[in-house]
Amino acid sequence: MAVLNYRHDGREPGPLAMALDAALGQAARRGELARWLLRTHGWSRPTMTFGRGQQADPDLIGAAATAGVGLASRPTGGG
To answer: CB of 44 within 8 A of CB of 72?
Structure first.
């Protein structure tokens, strides 16, 4: 019997990937996942992530937009 489920979601936009991580974390806290889950994914475009407690500098946000780099907030870590 496997004690770990594996899920690979391919390439995703940063905000979608972080929203899925948050939703899976909430489901786990509510006891709705039968097993541990290892989820892997990649970015569909270059993306910078910031931890839940971090705020991106406005100049950095502008520079990222100019360079075509996406921004996403992680449901965990940072700051």
So the answer is: no
Q: Contact at 8 Å (CB) between 36 and 15?
A: no
Rounded-to-integer distance, Cα 32 and Cα 36, Å: 11
Rg (CA), the chain: 15
Distance CA(44)–CA(37), nearest Å, equals: 22
Largest CA distance in the chain: 51
Amino acid at 32: E
Higher pLDDT, residue 47 or 4: 47
pLDDT, tens only, 1-30: 567 889 999 999 999 999 999 999 999 999
Count other C-beta atoms under 10 Å from residue 34's C-beta: 7
Using the predicted structure, report yes or no on whether residue 79 has a pLDDT greater than 70. no
